């Protein structure tokens, strides 16, 4: 396949969009390790309300992600991104100027209303060729992972000099920088032309939900984001009780994140090499459950905390990477938007309920009760993954056509997309070829030969 490298426009698009994500998520993630402790100083603060403040961002995201994604289809990606970042900045300022827990909750809800993730991802797709899209998404995903790692270190460090309100002003400044990047560095460009089948929403929904696999993956992402927020409702205070001041949490998280990557990478490579994707995801849930079970021991030594948190984040980070890629591999381009919409909504609901329910239940059940609940959720999600069935074996092939005129190419793309097992169909101008991504276990060779000469790429 030609043009294996990103073009200058694609490279600029990838870097600028990744920067928008990173700047925005850096601010959000900074709150996770500190909001539980610093928020106790706000007027009217209680554990249930602090949990609601932590989680309500996810509720706003869950409600608005799909509508704003659809709006970006109608009025363009950039207006939605600009508007979303302005709303996010406004929410940060509301929280920053507030001295009450209800002001914090209102600010967090307004932050979540700036739901631009779907518009940014759609713009990344618009500004890239199909064969380069995975690279664009990988760069954006990597920026989020980097922001997560830096924020867990930066949050506790900044808390030494800034109050919780001060952190929100930093978050507003980071979002303003993201807005400047969006307005000045993201290339201008319309949506790329692509071939799509004329399917109604009902038809797409029926296809995506037919075997229930999207719901299995939605449950899994719901559980890991519930658990992530729940852990940060418990662990910071536990670390303080173990003798580690909030400022010391930074180097603990830094060490843990490095160790978790060392543990996660072999698991990821093993999944790819042995084609054991589902089994490795189930193993990740086992690792998370083991980490949570370990917290019953009551140990306070630093080695204990490093081991426990490394296990938790290794499992979480692996699932955070594998689950969305599994969704993309299961559903072709005609259905992927619907599938990812269900998946993302479940993810944000998990974050919302993980914070709000943990805050509500913690005074009633205690830490032990919350741990039991999260262990049960992890075990249930791991068992549910057994219902995924056989995952696709993705292969890229090219169909060489006798004619290279536009009508023949478009006709071939449409015919290919109607075949079982064909996930993507795209073409580069002037090549006289249609490139396909197929599931080897479902696609029929004789059907492909009807389209033209088959070439493995």
TrEMBL record:
Tell me which GO cellular component terms the UniProt record holds. plasma membrane
Give the membrane topology: Multi-pass membrane protein
Q: Name one Pfam family in it.
A: MFS_1
Q: Does the keyword Membrane apply?
A: yes
Q: Does the keyword Oxidoreductase apply?
A: no
User: Where do the TM regions start and end?
Assistant: 21-39, 45-68, 80-98, 104-125, 137-158, 164-186, 214-235, 250-268, 280-296, 340-363, 369-388
Q: What is its main location?
A: membrane
Classification via CDD domains:
MFS_YajR_like
> Highest taxon of the source?
Bacteria
What is the name of this protein? MFS transporter
Q: What is the lineage of its organism?
A: Bacteria, Pseudomonadati, Pseudomonadota, Gammaproteobacteria, Kangiellales
């Amino acid at each position: 396949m030609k043009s294996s490298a990103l073009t200058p426009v694609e490279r600029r698009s990838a870097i600028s969009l990744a920067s928008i994500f990173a700047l925005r998520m850096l601010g959000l993630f900074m709150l996770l390790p500190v909001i539980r402790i610093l928020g106790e100083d706000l007027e009217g603060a209680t554990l249930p309300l602090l949990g609601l403040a932590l989680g309500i961002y996810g509720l706003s995201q869950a409600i608005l992600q799909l509508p704003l994604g659809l709006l970006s289809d109608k009025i363009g990606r950039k207006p939605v991104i600009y508007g979303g970042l302005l709303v996010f900045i406004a929410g940060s300022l509301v929280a920053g100027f507030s001295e009450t827990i209800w002001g914090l909750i209102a600010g967090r809800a307004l932050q979540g209303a700036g739901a631009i993730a779907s518009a940014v991802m759609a713009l990344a797709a618009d500004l890239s060729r199909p064969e380069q899209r995975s690279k664009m998404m990988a760069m954006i995903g990597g920026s989020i992972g980097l922001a997560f790692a830096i924020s867990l270190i930066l949050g506790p460090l900044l808390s030494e000099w800034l109050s919780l309100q001060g952190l929100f002003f930093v978050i507003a400044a980071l979002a303003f920088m993201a807005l400047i990047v969006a307005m000045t560095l993201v290339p201008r460009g319309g949506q790329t032309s692509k071939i799509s089948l004329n399917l109604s929403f009902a038809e797409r929904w029926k296809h995506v939900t037919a075997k229930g696999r999207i719901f299995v993956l939605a449950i899994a992402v719901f559980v890991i984001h519930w658990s992530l927020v729940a852990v940060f409702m418990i662990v910071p205070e536990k670390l303080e009780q173990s003798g580690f001041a909030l400022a010391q949490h930074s180097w603990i998280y830094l060490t843990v994140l490095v160790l978790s990557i060392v543990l996660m990478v072999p698991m990821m490579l093993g999944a790819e090499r042995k084609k054991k994707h589902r089994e490795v995801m189930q193993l990740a849930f086992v690792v998370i459950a083991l980490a949570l079970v370990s917290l019953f021991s009551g140990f306070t030594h630093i080695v204990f905390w490093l081991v426990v948190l490394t296990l938790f984040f290794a499992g979480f980070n692996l699932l955070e990477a594998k689950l969305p890629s599994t969704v993309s591999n299961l559903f072709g381009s005609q259905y992927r938007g619907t599938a990812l919409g269900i998946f993302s909504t479940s993810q944000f609901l998990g974050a919302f309920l993980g914070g709000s329910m943990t805050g509500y239940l913690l005074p009633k059940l205690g830490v032990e009760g919350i741990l039991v609940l999260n262990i049960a959720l992890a075990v249930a999600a791991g068992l549910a993954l057994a219902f995924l069935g056989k995952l696709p074996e993705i292969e890229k092939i090219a169909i060489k056509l006798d004619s290279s005129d536009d009508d023949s190419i478009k006709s071939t793309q449409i015919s290919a997309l109607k075949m079982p097992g064909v996930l993507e169909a795209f073409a580069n101008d002037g090549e006289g070829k249609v490139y396909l991504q197929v599931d080897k276990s479902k696609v029929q060779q004789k059907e492909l030969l009807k389209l033209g000469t088959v070439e493995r790429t």
